[in-house]
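PT: before anyone asks, these are the final sequences, not the draft ones from last week. 686 residues across everything. Please model them as a single complex and drop the result in this thread when it's through.
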Amino acid sequence: MKQTVFIIDDDASIRKSLGRLLRASDLVTEDFPSAERYLERAPYDGVGCILLDVNMPGISGIELQTQLMDSGRDLPIIFLTGYGNISMSVNAMKRGALDFLTKPVSEDQLLPAVRQALQHHHSLRDERDIRASIEARLATLTHREKEVMRELITGAPNKIVADRLGIAIKTVKVHRANLMLKMGVRSIAELLHLCHLVGTKPDAPPLR
Amino acid sequence: MSILVVTWSMFSAACAMLALIHVFLWSNRKSEPVYLLLAFMALAASFVAIQEMNLFSTGDPDVAQRLILWQNLLIALVLIPMVWSVRSYLPSARTWGAVSISVLWGIGLLINFLMPGNLTFTEISAMDARVTVWGDPFYVPVGTVNDWKWLVDITVVLIPLYIIDAAWHDRRPHRGRRGLVITLGTVLFILFAGIQAIAVDAGILSAPYMVSAAFLTMVFALTWVFARDVVNARTLAVELTQSRNETEQLVRANLLGEVASALAHELNQPLAAILGNAQAARKFLSRPEPDLTEIEEILDDIVRDDKRARDIILKMRSMLHGDESVHEPVELRVIVAEAIDFLKGEFKQNGISTRFDVSPPVPMVGGGRIALQQVILNLLINAEHALLDSRSENCDIQIRLFAHHGGAVLEVRDHGPGIADEIRSRLFEPFVTTKHRNIGMGLAVCKRIIEARGGQLSAENADGGGACFRVWLPAEQA
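LR: through. Structure below.
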């Protein structure tokens, strides 16, 4: 899968040198002299991470982090700074930065950090893809099937589901078979797992 | 030669010596005429001793009459300066006391010269020949005492009262015993000499006049207190210069700390680039078929970044190690640009922008490049701190340079909270600060640097918020 490291720093020689170091480690890089220029770029869909200078004229690194988070972009960010400032790094990490490196940064700090970030983004992407497919399958269920499903994942047997929804046990069985088929699961346990991944909650409290 | 003659000659010589000392002190501090007054008084006292010696050596009543006539003038010339120098030494002395003593002696002198005879005797009938206990012969005039002599006899009481009063009001713990020295030195001996002279005049005491002995002690006491003041002042001046130098050193160290931090920040960029490039080159080289063109480019970049680092260090060196003894006229525009350039890394770090407007032509100003640099760095760093502390919206520092009033004006304006009213009037005094990290010497030193060049440093709150510091320096021809 395509993996790109985005380098955003206002110092041209730093951009160039970091780019080279990453390319020498077989990574693809793109560099930008400012946060503004990065924002102009078309949203990136692959796996990647951002190497971001904290202090830049115009939009600063920290401001860019906030903007990216607000617009729901999930590229992990590794901050680079001229001098480490504890409160600044704590704040950046709290907002979800993956790492905070102090310049001059050596390859044994940079490469593991970048690899970890890419790994992190990769699993984020996987999860996202899985979730998307579950959501897609959920979307194919009818209203009634969804109702039945929400009852089933409380652990209720068919009879209770039928009672609660006020329909015949036979009908419940039909809905159950259909929805298991549509969701691609063979057991209630598997169904429960999928629902958990996308955050679908049972309607009623679980049976004791 | 009799002991009397030897002793009185010594009195005279000692007084003359003290007069010389005061002339010397005066020549070193012309702003204080009191030393001239004291020299005059000591000289008069020296002549009093000579006159007195002549008086007890002569057997001729006419000569004695003339001697006493001039002696009275000399005594006035000792006492009046004495009274006024005490007044200048002890501010607590009463002016009207000094005035009335002077006036009494003035009237006394008029009578002395206008009436027949002199102020002491209207007529001297004879010179009474006597001998001292140890056998030295001397003469004492005998005759009709002047009816107006009481006028100056009063001063024998008035002067001690005047001095005791002044010394009494001057007594304060830190003043030491200067009042006491003057009192002892003058009062006791005036009383002694005055009473002795009155006793001799009245024929009660058979001894030569001893006014000059009293005067010598008096002159000595006054010389003592005044000379000690000179010595103390010298010591204080040395200490003051020393502590001033130490403070300046401290301020400089403080500033150097700021400058070093800015330097570190600036050096960081090329260093970071060099590290990345070098490590990339090593990785490229370890490939089976290294791309030599790429490696060549990397080496070029390393050389370029290294030069950039060297330039930063050279810039810092030239900024801090100039020859301060050469006060060549300097161009403020260049120094200001250097200072801004120097702090740009730090400013960037803190999100501060600067605007530097020059309205040419701006005249050259008196030099001491490094000292001026120090002032400008201080003002810029102050502005930066003001902005950081206030977390102001407008993080802009405006710097303006223009010609004004036969010189150049440099304005540094921030958009921080401005100068608080409670410290406004004391802004340039030492140890006044609002910052915890600072000892509050920066502006005090800046002001001194600027004023040493005949310039002015002022501060005000700008329209629309923020503080504005203004430096004016007189123009100097290249």
